[in-house]
Structures are given as C-alpha cells and as structure tokens.
What does this fold into?
Amino acid sequence: MSEKMRFTVVTMLVLVSLVLSFSAGCRVASQATPGPTQSIKVVNEAWDIIFENYVDHTKLDPTNLSTEAIKGMVKALDDPYTTYMNPETYKLSTSDFQGKFHGIGATVGLKDNKLTIIAPILDSPAAKAGIKPGDTILEINGQSTVGMSVEEAVSRIRGPKGTAVRLLTQHLDEVELIEIEIIRAEIKLPSVSFGMEGDIAYIKISYFTEYTDEELLPVLANVAQSGATGIILDLRSNPGGLLGTVVDVASHFIKEGVIVSTVDNQGRKESSPVNSGGAKTDLPIVVLTDNHSASGSEVLAGALQDYDRAIIAGTQTYGKGSVNKLYRLEDGSGLYITIARWFTPNGRMIEGRGITPDYELDLKGSDAIRWALDFLWSTSLNPAGRVGG
It folds into this structure.
C-alpha cells in the first residue's frame, strides 16, 4: 500500500489545514485521469444537443458546464468523502502534512452534513478565538456553508497570515450563534507532546504528519530511560493523517502482524504489516479516544485493541473508515473519491461504526487522564492484569 495513502474524516485539515485529512480516510496521490465508460456516450450526446440548440449562447460556457456536470455526478454518489475540487482547492490539497501552513489552525469535517470543527490546534488563532471541538461553522465571510464541501471551506478559510476571516459559529448543544473574526497566522504542526506523570508516560498525538514518527522516536527513548511502567496514548480529537505514518507509529507498540487492511470495489485486499525494525516497547498502554478521534487514529486504536496490546478508554470514535484517492484532471482540478474501505487486523470495518472503547468514560480533559493513571497503577499492582504485558 502506498506511503502516500492518507487518512482524513471529510476533514481536510483546515488546520487549516492539513487538507484532506479527516476528509479524512486513507489517501493515495495520483496524476491519472479516470477513464471514460460506455455510459459517457449519453453525456456526450446531451452535451452536443445543448451546444447546438440551446437558445441563449451566452450561457454556453464549456468550463462552467463541465464543472457542474462533474459536481452533479459526485453529488449523485451521496458520499461525504467524495468531492470535486477546483484547481485552487486541488493545489491546496496537495500541500498537506508539510509541517506548517497559513490559516486559523483547526481541523474541520462534515458531520450530519454540517461543517463541523473536529479540533482546534493548541495555541492556534482558532483556539485563542474560542473555537471548540464540535462547533458548527454556519457562514464563512458571510457566505452560508449549506451544501459547501470541506474542500471549498478549506480554500475560503485558509489565506495569507495577517489577514482576517469571519466565521459564524454555533457551539455544540448551544442555541446562540457567535460571529468570530480570526486573524490567520503561520501554523506549525508539532504532532507529538510528552510528559511524565510519576512513572507513567503521557504521549499525545494530535495528527499523523510525515514528521510524527520522527517526533515520537526521542519520546520513546525518553520513556525507556525514565523507567516508566506504563503509557497513556492520547488520541482524542486526532483526525488522522498519513497511513504510512500510522503504520510506523503502531509498529513501535506491536511486534508483528498486520496493522490495517483495505478492500476495494473488486474485493481485492491489501494489507499494511508491522515494520520489523525500529524502537519497540512492551509497556502497558491505555489509549484515550473521543467522538472526534477519526480515521488514522481509529486505525491505530483498532490495531492496538485487536492485538490486546492496549485498553481503549473514552467514547466511541468517529467512524471514518474510507480509503480515498486524489485524481488530477487535465484542467488542474481534481476528484477525491472513495475507492475502498479499511479494516482492523481482526476484520472489523470501522466506516460508520467507529471503535468501541473497552471502558466507556464520561470524562473529559485531565479527568480522563487521571482515570488512565489510576487504571495503570492499579493493574501494575496485579501482574496478571497487566495491559499489553
């Protein structure tokens, strides 16, 4: 499976943005254009009739009509993770996961057909402006987001640092609408944070960029040197990212086997195995999840759960289990389409279902971390009950 496969929730990281990240599923970059099918003859026939006979020649713009035709085909698929991108949006989408960009610093996706904040980046302009996970974006610079794709939203929210964007938002479970003006900035994307809680290592992975494994390696070395007896792996509000990175990260915690498998529309199955080399740890692990843990983070949590390598604690994850492929069209626009579903090592499909935690927690923030600490300390007193030992 390609290293360029990316997991995203229709996210796009409007990080804005790790574009297409939580738009997000698995992603493969491609320069190929989808080939025509037999049915395209009917489309060509309609095209010819329109251009030969339609009364108002001023409306016969080939570029506009072809764009709308593609949008119509995509809409008919009724798939929130399949979308058409204009040339500008396509260009943005090919620059994700580079470690920095200009924007507001928030992950965005579609939830119940509404443009929704998955998570703001720590200390980003979005976070400082009061943007919260679960917020709905109703307008961008005065334009309604009804029917707007994540990709279009990304192109509207992103922009040069120092410029402003106005968002009309609504907090989760609240009635009041709030208009916020946010000044864009250069967003840097360190994806791993680390700390010690007594003898327990706390590792937070915010998303999976091309640098995540590189960031994680010194953390794991520190964990080994510190004499840690367990690990809390916090994947809350992690919208996913690069599949290759997810496999690299999982390989530090799982000795052998398959991390994730995909099945396409022909029933063909491809599997991504554990990397045999690199740093390994067999310390007990508690993985924290929430409703905004999506795509790549679900791959990691699902693999750790299937191999009994970790306890999953928190709430049901997002349920983004699509493999998506990005095609570049001749005019510089693009098609981002769902081409397969991914499955955990035990064959569980996550699309629309998510990962069910071993322990359902109605706890947020540091309270969930405290629960994980207590769990690891209590199991360490009983070797028979050690997690992942």
Observations:
- The radius of gyration is 22 Å.
- Residues 62-77 form the longest helix (16 residues).
